[in-house]
Design brief:
By secondary structure, this protein is mostly helical. 71% of the residues lie in helices and 0% in strands. The two termini are 41 Å apart.
Length: 367
């Protein structure tokens, strides 16, 4: 247990947080990694869009695209950092309003758009039932066992559970260094116990497979506040050790021609390490020079792009590749560009208009 902080102990100077634009750029990199995986790094419904397996469309790059799924783990590290930064010193109402207004407008719009597009007769993909589509608006379709409109929404369910744990353990009582350290240590230990006893409820709440990445991001925010904090570096190191274990355990398998690709355990570890090192470099200020305004735009497009890119990407790939006969690599780039354009429209027409209104409405105290 870390020693209690006293008034006599020197405290690091905490500067007013400036926007870390390099973090926005890293978000987009992680989103493009996931898009590469969904378009060219796996089989499944995307085969119907291409007309054949992506391994035939991208004979060389499909091996690299297969590692793109690890962009999710990088997202979780970023999320741990960002939620710590945005939740520190904030009351619970403000924290809830900030998170809800950030997630919901683009999410609701994506649910409506994907449901409407999949309902078109010319689209061969099956739409969920109207009842299931309505349940999807709550973001609780995963625990309720309802068909998902968006394939990527399982990651949002993980995010929501992290927000709940952070809100109850840190935001509600008030954030301070010792409380955050105890939260990280307690969650790490509890998640390991949950994995060991195979208790479904504990696994549901504590998320052993993904907890290390959120915890690593929280630890890196402590590093951002004080780079000499040995406890913070310890949290980061332990979370990386456990996180790479879960990533390898889930994604590696012995070479088998029946699998789409054979990921190397070493390469998996390197990608996970890249995520930690990239966020650490931002936390330490090494990438402060990357202060270009377009990175803020990239960060703003990442979330709506992430929401719509997979399912609508199937429709766009089929149109570009099989209808317009654009070559595979051209289709890949054109599809990414189209999804970025749609993300820009969602940001301008939905998020910029609804997010401030929703945040204001949720932040107002009620008598």
């Amino acid at each position: 247990m870390p020693p209690a902080e006293t008034s006599a102990a020197p405290k690091p100077v905490v500067r007013r947080e400036n926007r870390l634009r390099a973090l926005d750029g890293l978000r987009l990199v992680a989103a493009l990694m996931v898009a590469g995986y969904h378009y060219g790094g796996r089989d499944g419904e995307v085969v119907q869009a291409w007309g054949s397996s992506p391994r035939h469309q991208f004979p060389t790059l499909h091996h690299l695209f297969a590692y793109g799924c690890l962009g999710v783990q990088i997202f979780f590290v970023i999320s741990g950092f960002v939620i710590s930064m945005s939740g520190w010193g904030r009351p619970l109402r403000s924290f809830f309003a900030s998170r809800a207004s950030r997630l919901l407008p683009a999410y609701w719009a994506a649910i409506v758009i994907v449901t409407a597009v999949f309902a078109l007769p010319v689209v061969a993909y099956k739409a969920v039932s109207p009842s299931d589509a309505l349940v999807n608006l709550t973001m609780l379709q995963q625990p309720l066992g309802v068909d998902r409109v968006l394939g990527v929404c399982w990651t949002l369910w993980a995010e929501i559970r992290f927000y709940a744990l952070f809100a109850l353990c840190i935001v509600l009582p008030g954030a301070n260094r010792q409380r955050v350290i105890l939260f990280c240590a307690g969650w790490t230990l509890a998640a390991a116990v949950a994995q060991g006893v195979h208790e479904p409820l504990l696994t549901l709440v504590l998320m052993p497979e993904y907890a290390p990445f959120f915890i690593g991001g929280v630890g890196l925010y402590l590093v951002h506040r004080d780079r000499r904090d040995a406890y913070a570096w310890g949290i980061v190191g332990v979370s990386w050790l456990i996180g790479q274990h879960y990533a390898v355990q889930r994604l590696w398998h012995a070479p088998n021609p029946e699998f789409f690709s054979n990921r190397s355990a070493t390469a998996i570890i390197l990608v996970v390490t890249f995520g930690y090192v990239a966020v650490a470099a931002i936390a330490l200020g090494w990438l402060r020079w990357a202060n270009w305004r377009w990175l803020t735009v990239a960060g703003a497009l990442t979330y709506p792009f992430y929401l719509v890119h997979e399912h609508l990407g199937w429709v766009v790939i089929k149109a570009y590749h099989r209808t317009l006969h654009i070559p595979s690599y051209g289709t890949f780039l054109a599809t990414v560009a189209t999804m970025l354009l749609l993300a820009w429209l969602l940001n301008r027409l939905v998020e910029n208009r609804l997010t401030p209104k929703l945040r204001t409405a949720l932040s107002k105290p009620r008598r």
